[in-house]
Amino acid sequence: MAEFIRGILEERELVNLSPYAQKSRYTKGREKPEPECDIRTAYMRDRDRIVHCKSFRRLKDKTQVFLAPQGDHYRTRLMHTLEVSQTARTVAKCLRLNEDLTEAIALGHDLGHTPFGHAGERALNQVCPYGFHHSEQSGRLVDILEKDGKGLNLTWEVRDGILNHGTADSPSTLEGQTVRLCDKISYIHHDMDDAERAGILCEEDIPMHLRSLLGESTRERLNTFVHDIVQNSSGKDKVSMSEEIGEAMQELRSFLYRNLYTNDVAKGEEKKAQAMLSELYRYYVTHSADLPLDFRMLIDKRGEMLERVVCDYISGMTDQYSMTKFREIFIPNSWSRP
After folding, report:
1. pTM of the entire structure?
2. Residue 70's pLDDT is what?
3. What is the pLDDT of residue 231?
4. Residue 282 CB coordination number (10 Å)
5. Tally of CB atoms within 10 A around 149
6. Helical segments of the chain, H only
7. What is the C-alpha to C-alpha distance for residues 152 and 50, in angstroms, rounded to an integer?
């Protein structure tokens, strides 16, 4: 019986999903062909591979916005990922898109994020001659770095969604477009919620015309965004917001950049974090023998560039692990007479 289950699930997709949805039976496949699972579709397998990989687990100890916050309820990068996934699945279900593909892209989209959020990303981008962007790093993780250099061998559609989830990018599938939009509305929603919890911003700080149009609370605004995407995209070959709500979202995003993402209280420690990661980068570039063996093998066996591999190592660190390595390398140990 088991060998028929995947076929039944694929048939359900063909019958029930939108004509614009990506069907798992028609995936462009994997770079390395492999036997199909008897009970899971291709996108279900991708989702499971991402959830069980080491990079996904490390997201729980990486900064979202607030660096080392004093409190249990501020979002980490993992919580951001889960909220994006949940919001994107809601939209996908309403639009009759492929939920498994949507979920896989959402869960994998930030795997390559650095410690200390975008501050860490800026640091590596400044010091690495090849540049650094977390979406490209997410691609390297799933293609090369996970599973001891074997990669996760994900389908083309999941990889495309992960690589193209940024503001300026254009995913090839509607599921990828859904994640791209839901990533934005999720961080606008939860970053404002965290800012209110921290006492940095309050609802009255948001311009009145935005509150009147989008809602008087984070919950109401998220509801407005999701409803607008669904209403504006239903039955269409593109996932997007209406012009009015889309422009309001961009204005709210700009408001957060001015008042939260550059706020000295919320971001005052970021310069220290950037300096620390920059020093770690310079150290490992000149002391490559101190890299873990699996990273040295990328250079020796695969011919990867040293600078890129150093970024692989540092970007994979959690906040606490990067501080531990910095102390080990740069802070003298205490000593006593024998």
Report:
1. 0.95
2. 61
3. 98
4. 12
5. 14
6. 2-16, 42-51, 54-58, 77-94, 99-108, 117-127, 134-140, 146-149, 156-163, 174-197, 208-214, 218-233, 243-256, 264-267, 270-286, 293-300, 306-315, 319-330
7. 8
Half-sphere exposure for 113 (CA within 13 Å, toward CB): 30
pLDDT at 74: 84
**Three-state DSSP class for residue 201:** coil
> What's the pLDDT tens digit per position in 227-243?
999 999 999 999 999 99
Measured CA to CA in angstroms, residue 252 lies from 3, 7, 95, 228, 268 at distances of: 50, 45, 25, 16, 22
In angstroms, rounded to a whole number, what is the distance separating the alpha carbons of residues 276 and 25? 47
DSSP code per residue over 141-155: IIIIIHHHHT----B
Question: How far apart (Å, rounded) are the C-alpha atoms in residues 317 and 333?
Answer: 22
The average confidence (pLDDT) of the chain is 93
Q: b or e along 102-127 (b: 16 or more beta carbons within 10 Å of the residue's beta carbon)?
A: bbbbbbbbbbbbbbbbbbbbbbbbeb
d(CA 267, CA 103): 31
**Is the per-residue pLDDT at 211 higher than 70?**
yes
Q: Which residues of 208-230 are buried (b: 16+ CB within 10 A; e: fewer)?
A: eeebebbbeebeebbebbbebbb
Q: Which of 304, 313, 305 is nearest to 284 (CA)?
A: 313
Burial of 166 (0-12, 13-18, 19+ CB in 10 A): middle
**Cβ neighbours of residue 331 closer than 8 Å, sequence gap 6 or more:** none
Which tokens hold the place of 207? 């311009």
What per-residue confidence (pLDDT) applies to 1?
58
Residue 335 has a pLDDT of: 59
Q: 51: exposed, middle or buried (C-beta count within 10 Å: 0-12, 13-18, 19+)? A: middle
Question: Averaged over 87-103, what is the pLDDT?
Answer: 98
